[in-house]
Please model this.
Amino acid sequence: MKKKWLWSLIVGLLLVTMLVQCGSPAQPTATPAPPTQEPSAKPTTPPTQPPASTQAPEPTAAARANVFVYAHPTTFPDLDPAKSYSNDSAVLSNCYETLTFYNPPGSKELLKPVLATSWESNADATEWTFHLRKGVKFQDGEPFNAAAVKYSIEKTKEIGVGAAYIWDPVEDIEVVDDYTVKFHLSYPAPLDLIASSGYAAWIYSPKAYEEHGSDWFNEGHCVGTGPYTIESYDRGSRLVMTRFDDYWGGWKEGQFDKVVFEISEDPVVLQQMIESGTADFTYSLPPDNLDALDAREDIVVYRNPSFQNLLGLLNTQKPPLDNKLVRQALSYSFPYKQFIDVVMKGRAVQSHGPVPAGMWGHSDELFQYYYDLDKAKQLLAEAGYPNGGFDLLYTYATGDMDEQQLGEVWKAELAKLGINLKVQGMSWEAQWELAKSGPEKAQDIFVMYWWPDYISPYSFLYSMFHSEDEILFNLAYYRNPKYDELIDKANELSGSDRKKAEELFIEAQKILIDDAVALFFYDVQNIHVARADIKGYVDNPAYPHVVFAYQLTRAR
Amino acid sequence: MHRWTYIVRRLILAVVVLLSVSVVTFFIARVVPSDPAAAWVGSHPKPDQIARARIELGLDKPLYVQYLMYMNKLFHGDLGTSVQTHHPILMDLKTYLPATLELVLVGMLMAIVIGIPLGVLSGAKKESVLDHVTRFFSVAGVSIPTFWLGLLLQLLFFSKLGLLPLNGRLSVDTTLYHPVTQITGFYLVDTLITGNWFAFKDALLHIILPAFTLATYPIGLTVRMTRTSMIEVLNQKYILAARVAGLPERTVLFVLALKNAIIPTITVLGLSFVYSLTGAILVEVIFSWPGLGTYVTNAVLSLDFPVIVSVTLIVTVFYVFINLFLDIVQAMLDPRVTLQ
Model:
């Protein structure tokens, strides 16, 4: 009798839920309210009809056939093409294009023409001429031409945040004619590679940028030459892109009309979305669940190399790690294979030096240290530490489980050599501040990830190992004039003689490996999860986590 | 007269609290080892970029000058610019704040609609089965961690029963075919105003789970508070008189007794409103609700101090003003309060 109250409450709640669920079929005829922000390009999108079914909130397969849904694990911090240097590229790469494009590993050519159809440089790579594609329009109807290229790059340089520094060598941009643009550089540089960068190299409509300014782009607008443009944006929640009908590449049957980015920062939610089919593509799922997902017929797990790797930079200025033999001993003390198999469960492969596999300048021939405690002991004895007997401070960014576990595993191994590893988690900022305070006060081992801005070994070899007067990212505090000379020379040549440059880069890496400046733990694997009916996906580590929706179709 | 001096005194105190909070958060944010200039520039900054940003952001000036500059902007309605995203914080808040408020208000509504009647009945029928069950659930409500409950509810209502959506504020179809015209930022209100029923229904379905998850704590608290004060009030003589006079039990409980028993409950509700504003952080992450929680989580992770300070200030403003409002209401109801 008394329980009735509770039960009627519960039943009542359930009923309300179901009632709302079923809804009244008469209502949906109410005409859709116009979207708040009209994309600047008149969207002559195919008339969007309200979905046929009125009952289920779950979209029917038919209604969704032409919509690609990307469940994205992060928000989009900055949608301004001049400034963006983050996960926004997932969106921006579908709207903006670059002069050149870095092909996925395994392709015959390194670069593919996009907005430039061909390019050449003078003998010492200080003058670059790009011939532009004709008949290309921006999404606001403005023509794409040499003036637009000059404007975009100069504007990005002028604002100067994000990866804008990739254009540092550019001294002057000359508009030769409408479809020819010439770059004058102050020092030799591979401008064709720079122009393919996934950050800071986008060409955007000068008119739109002048008229509206940065904040307008962040309100959810984009004006590029690419296949899709932003239709609506609910900040932090959802971004919808729609076809740009006048895209120069043209449209074929079966390509997606719309691309939807669903933002959710919870890996469990992302997994539920891909399992239930409410999303077509995602990444950043709980690693332990990947095998179970892979076993399903309606889901595919893609594992590809990324251009990101994890290194442990050794403090080469402070005893005992200023001794090369001790550094080599450390390099032999880490169980690379076991760690990758057991902890990383195949989410990584052991590195060959600092340049990740798949990138030009990488070589599989380079020496890999391996787990051998006897060898480590012997080297320590040679260095005068037969029983270890010293402490080392290992700092990592708090919150990164992999870096933390790596430290724990290594600590156990080093204990066998009589070395006490102090594993210290810090916020990235604090970790970096400590490292920048100078080699004497700083940590002994700094673990961090590195990834390139534009695709060149120089990004890795210069940023982390070139001598620095003011410490920035050379957190091994390494100084080697011979090495510096080699990579600087290689970088100069990388515009004019890429083959020779590659040889020099590999030679330089041999020096680093022999000097055991760092532990090259592993290259991270990119893992993406997609519905099996999505066809045409190719991962490109040069543009991390970007899905070029233009290339995709849904199997019927 | 007393009442007005009391209110003025409380207002002055509120301003003092707000100013101190702004000082404390501002200086803590700056003392934490971080380099906003490097964050402003991006993940692989160059030294000259950082130097330029430092001047641009005014970080080369002494700390107290920076604070004064910040407060000056604040009084002109400018909350500053996010270091990480480079956009004006006000622009972000325009979408994030209404989303959170909508969630919290619906949660509070649930707390009132579910919590008060349950509290009344459980207080009236002390030691009955209903009372025991209610007490069990109210204790559970205040002690269950929200992240666990949220996941459980998702598993049950989305994965198993398929009754409610998993996350977000709207389904993809609504965004594509029945877009919501933003007026207030409260989707339930906006869709009603524009008569967009499809979207209204969708928004309602989407808010049930996160709002309920958020409401469990206030519900539990409301039940317990109402129950305790009901028991107290029901022992008083005027209730006995009403019963003797033969008034229906419903009137006795929900009109005569509740009127006196509800005052402490209102205070608790006011406080749990503010609690929910911060409690929403976890719930929002689980349900991908694009509100203050999601926003401030990202800000904290990247030490985006202008955002952290702004959100802290906003929560403080709510806290201070709701407290002030409650104090005033209490003073109206019980003039003795002003004498202290």
